[in-house]
Amino acid sequence: MQSLRALLQFTTILPLGKPADYECFAKRSWLYPIAGYVTGGIAALPGLIAWYLGFENSSIIAALTLALAVFISGGNHFDGLLDFGDGLMAHGSREKRIRAMTDRTTGAGALALGIMVVLISYAALSSMTVLQIAFAVFIAEIFGKLSMAFSSALGKPFHDGIQKYIYDRSKKRFCLYAVLLTLPLFLLPGKMYVGAGLAAALVTFLCLHFLARKLFGGTNGDVTGAGNEITRMAVLLVVAVILTSA
């Protein structure tokens, strides 16, 4: 229970009492998808409530859903996305890119990547019915946390920080444990969408992992946080494309 409380205190703004020992979670970073069940369940509420009440304006529900997904995490992963954007779009040496990503300013790269991810995520959600929005964001949040679990176990850090703290306490086998935690999703209706979402999450992680190695020489907390936001976007996009093509 200490590990789960530490996980949720790290990934959400839920009031869960006094701070738990963070090391309890760092030694069990494969638990990340459980946080996705929590944040995904909360983010699905606007769609579920709208469906129950017969409200069918997908644009409004899409905006509320996406806002709630970012809000419930305290914007921590979104902050990582913005920092990653600065590093991604900086010109010059690896050191310059790392400096752009880790400084405290928010540059054009951050704004550009943040806007792109939000717009694509919103467009994907707004193309669905309100009930489909609830389903899609639920699985997307879980797969976003799966990406974070992979990054924690496989993303060799390029400097000291929270990524190194978790990486040093993680094992490569944690990736398998994290995948196993997502398998209950295949009990839901729409197994094809779940399978497509899982594939999108894996491809997205691999792309980010190799991109981070090439540009920065490894991973840090910003890359891991960005992985959650970009993976959520990728899963929503894939689900939306399949739904609207059917």
From TrEMBL:
Any one GO cellular component localisation term in the record: plasma membrane
UniProt keyword list: Cell membrane, Cobalamin biosynthesis, Magnesium, Membrane, Transferase, Transmembrane, Transmembrane helix
Keyword Cell membrane in annotation: yes
Catalytic activity: alpha-ribazole + adenosylcob(III)inamide-GDP = adenosylcob(III)alamin + GMP + H(+); alpha-ribazole 5'-phosphate + adenosylcob(III)inamide-GDP = adenosylcob(III)alamin 5'-phosphate + GMP + H(+)
Entries under Pfam families matching the protein: CobS
Main location: membrane
PANTHER family per UniProt: ADENOSYLCOBINAMIDE-GDP RIBAZOLETRANSFERASE
Pathway, per record: Cofactor biosynthesis; adenosylcobalamin biosynthesis; adenosylcobalamin from cob(II)yrinate a,c-diamide: step 7/7
Enzyme Commission identifier(s): 2.7.8.26
Protein name from the UniProt record: Adenosylcobinamide-GDP ribazoletransferase
Broadest EC class assigned to this enzyme: transferase
Family matches, as InterPro entries: CobS
An example Gene Ontology biological process: cobalamin biosynthetic process
Cofactor requirements of the protein: Mg(2+)
UniProt superkingdom: Archaea
A single MF term (Gene Ontology): adenosylcobinamide-GDP ribazoletransferase activity
This protein's record includes keyword Ion transport: no
Family per similarity comment: Belongs to the CobS family.
Function recorded in the entry: Joins adenosylcobinamide-GDP and alpha-ribazole to generate adenosylcobalamin (Ado-cobalamin). Also synthesizes adenosylcobalamin 5'-phosphate from adenosylcobinamide-GDP and alpha-ribazole 5'-phosphate.
Membrane topology, record value: Multi-pass membrane protein
NCBIfam families attached to this UniProt entry: cobS
Regions crossing the membrane: 34-54, 60-84, 105-125, 131-154, 174-190, 196-212
Native species: Methanocorpusculum labreanum (strain ATCC 43576 / DSM 4855 / Z)
Cellular compartments annotated: Cell membrane
